[in-house]
Design a protein that fits this description.
Strand content: under 5%
Protein name: Tetratricopeptide repeat protein
Order of helices and strands: HHHHHHHEEEEHHHHHHHHHHHHHH
Number of helices: 21
Strand order of the largest sheet: 1-2
Number of strands: 4
Largest sheet: 2 strands, antiparallel
Helix content: 55-70%
Length: 465
């Protein structure tokens, strides 16, 4: 049995008075400064400080060395990479066989099962093989300058005539596909991604019928397939394919209930509520959001409950029920103010003050309070972190529409111009539809300052295929 990991006291001292969640936010900001992608959270910081991660992956290494110039990994309390991975680790008799974090390029992967040190090199090689090749690999090209792979390995045959099998490598691949889709959507929106993302989704559901050696692995595969179905459903939702989105969300919900995963269930109901609101079914939106809140109660995440309260508020606003909407908004703000916790789901990385303001803007807009909606939409656009390009375009489009309806056409045109400038990078039918509505409202005001120029620029946009 490997000895217990040694606490990384140096890293703990570097964190200082900040909470693990606050320090994780600093790490994510530092990553963005140098163009890295890490999904750091309080749990990851805790694992580092507890010594569970003796050496970070290469992406985290670059971020930590950027944060603390002039220091080495050893200065930060980490062990040399050769001491914890591959042949070097096996050759060093003085180094105990403590697990390390698997290599990754899109942020940390948190393994459920731990392996002895002699298995690390083989696992890394197998995972790289699954993640970079095979019949299920699919290339996603959103623009000439953007390409990414969303591979999920097909089930392996145990022997020439045996049952198909799936293990940790397949579970990791499904989880990685989910992360990659989210990163691409954050930057570029859904339109160029949806149909290609359906390929790994089909493969992921094939894995659910494969034999697995451990219940924990089977549960991870079900959870990963459910999250992947939600991600693909969102791509369908954002690209205007509401029927497809509804089907994917229902599939995710069924998968969550089969494996008893309350987190995936809450996420599926959350997105179902959002879809119902956009599809003009506000009462269904309220009920789905309330179902999501019941599922999420056991998870212990105030931020998740806050987002779900906002989903409920959107439904009440769609029904024209201002008191119901205001109660849900007040609950959402109170829960948000309780801060981040280790229980917050990974998929909620987008939910910060900007999203809170943006969703409140949508509520006031649905209630016809355009000036108030514009204030919140402006706040959302100003607060949004730069790498969430799609959301920046969304909030700015909301602002343009609210200003146009509030009788401020010149300001609306200026906001619309900013959205147009983002459309080379963002492919979202949702954003385009909002902008088209703004154009319709502004047509009678062509002579107002800046409106004519904006309308001409919009008219010159290439139509999506």
């Amino acid at each position: 049995m490997p000895p217990a990991p040694r606490t990384n006291t140096v890293f703990r001292e570097l964190r200082g008075a900040r909470s693990p969640g606050e320090f994780a936010a600093v790490v994510r900001r530092a990553a963005r400064d140098i163009g890295e992608r890490v999904s750091c959270d309080a749990r990851y910081i805790g694992r580092v400080e507890a010594g569970e991660i003796r050496c970070p992956n290469y992406a985290y290494e670059r971020v930590f060395l950027h944060m603390f110039p002039g220091r080495t990994l050893a200065d930060l309390g980490f062990a040399p990479r050769s001491a914890v991975r591959g042949r070097g680790a096996r050759a060093a008799a003085s180094v105990p066989p403590v697990p390390t974090e698997p290599a990754a390029v899109h942020g940390p992967v948190h393994p459920i099962e731990q392996y002895e040190i002699q298995n690390h090199e083989e696992s890394d090689v197998r995972r790289r093989a699954f993640m970079t090749g095979g019949p299920a690999t699919v290339a996603v090209s959103l623009t000439p300058a953007t390409a990414a792979a969303l591979p999920v390995p097909a089930p392996r045959a145990a022997d020439p005539g045996g049952a198909r099998r799936a293990g940790e490598a397949e579970a990791l691949a499904v989880e990685d596909a989910v992360r990659r889709i989210r990163v691409l959507d954050d930057r570029h929106g859904a339109d160029g991604l949806y149909r290609r993302a359906a390929v790994p989704l089909r493969t992921a559901f094939e894995l659910l019928d494969a034999a697995t050696g451990r219940r924990a692995t089977a549960d991870r595969l079900h959870a990963g397939a459910g999250e992947l179905a939600i991600s693909v459903g969102w791509l369908a939702h954002d690209s205007g394919r509401f029927a497809d989105a509804r089907s994917h969300y229902a599939e995710a919900l069924a998968t969550a209930r089969m494996c008893g995963n309350a987190g995936v269930e809450a996420h599926a109901f959350c997105n179902t509520a959002f879809l119902a609101r956009d599809a003009g079914r506000p009462r269904e939106a309220v009920r789905a959001a309330q179902a999501a809140q019941r599922a999420a109660l056991e998870l212990g995440s105030p931020r998740l409950l806050s987002l779900l309260a906002l989903r409920e508020a959107g439904g009440w606003a769609g029904l024209g029920d201002r008191p119901g909407c205001e109660r849900a908004l007040a609950r959402a703000r109170d829960l948000f103010d309780r801060g981040v916790t280790d229980a917050d789901p990974e998929w909620m990385s987008f939910y910060g003050e900007a999203e809170l303001a943006g969703l409140e803007a949508q509520c006031w807009s649905a209630l016809g309070e355009w000036a108030r909606a514009a204030r919140f939409a402006r706040r959302a656009a100003e607060l949004q972190e730069p790498h969430f390009v799609r959301n920046t375009a969304l909030y700015t489009a909301e602002l343009a529409d609210d200003l146009a309806r509030a009788g401020r056409p010149d300001e609306a045109a200026a906001a619309g111009e900013r959205v147009v400038s983002l459309l080379d990078e963002v492919q979202s039918s949702r954003v385009r539809s909002m902008l088209a509505e703004t154009v319709r409202v502004l047509l009678p005001h062509r002579r107002a300052g800046g409106v004519g120029g904006f309308l001409d620029r919009y008219a010159a946009l290439p139509r999506p295929a």
